[in-house]
## 1
Amino acid sequence: MKFLLTTKNLRKKITVLDILFDSHIDEKIKHIKSAGFDGVVINLNENEAPTETIEAVRQNGLVVQNLHLPYSRINDLWVNGTSGTEMIRGFMKQIEFAHAHKVPIVVLHITSGNIPPLLSEVGIERIKQIIAFCEDHGVLLALENLRRLDYLLEVYDRCESDFLSFCFDIGHANALTGNLYEFPWKNFSSKLCCFHLHDNDGSSDQHLIPFMGNIDWGKIIPYIFSLKKDIPITIETYLLDWSKSFYTNMFSKDNFEAEFFKKTYQAALAIESYLNE
Ligand SMILES: [Zn+2]
């Protein structure tokens, strides 16, 4: 792994607050701050409105770049019935929460898996409701690429709004759609507002620290960052069950989380160095 550390530190570097390491929130914030990050993204569970977490993050001088809306039953979006209706109501509460706490972006998945329910009018109408709610509350809705880009394309085609945006997940394009270097940017670049940067070996969605999988970062980074000005470097790594053993010999057992965030921050600097050349 080659890290070029001759960076000018121009862009905000952001990490996921909870990489799924079992530690207290104050510990997480401490490690993220001392690694050098400027801010975090916060993943929300259903009905979660983490005021205290946001306050603690900000008290430590970190920004909250976005909130990731929950997605455990996101396919219900496309199906008539109370589950989808309730889910939308929950999203609206969380968008209201983002507005109240001045978080500018919420990220949303709109499908799960290879074969979600059929694309439906009820789904499009619900997305239109969410967009209208975002417009009223001044919060950007960033849809994220997973497996089914056709659903995203249909939504972008049918829903016109300055508040409808796009979060490009580099790892998903590498492993889930396999089109990272031929991504259909003509349909997405004008909507771009944030990145999810993480790595994998192309076989599955591993959320590894950048430079630990097979993504050609030197090739892709200058291109995707040229599509829109001033997008932060947001790293979306997780400590998934299988990756605990992947990292075992890389970080010490007693200081795992601190070392993990330090390595992740180095990767963010290396990514930035491709933008300064
Ligand atoms: Zn992502």
## 2
Amino acid sequence: MASTEQLIELLRQQGPGGDLTDPRIAPVADLLARREAELNEELARQERELEETQQQARRRERAEALRGHLDALTTELASARALLDDLTAALGACPACCGEDAACRWCRGRGGGGFTTPDPDGFERFVVPAVRMYVRMRTPNNTEEEHRKSVE
Ligand SMILES: [Zn+2]
């Protein structure tokens, strides 16, 4: 087999469109073809790795967005539960279902308002203003305009 330098020189002598079946050049042509195939394979592998990396980055972004959404929902749920606890206490209702669940282990669906003693502070805060408004709205001489003024 010819040395690398000799093969390169033979290739130079062939020039563009030269005869690559020349027995002196064939080993180099085979080597170049194999190297090209290896490089194409390597390029395809790197493209797959890049695509996988990009997919992982997109999945990570979606996971972070979902985690943020879950955190917000968890905070909102805790806040809603705290408010519901305050309201059911103010009404003296079952804290688990407010009397809406016949299968409730605390009240068996009988825990609506007045089921237990209302919390006095909560009653003053939530119920009394509602009762005042209800009475005002039901008073026969209370005109629409007076009602609007009383709300403002
Ligand atoms: Zn209940």
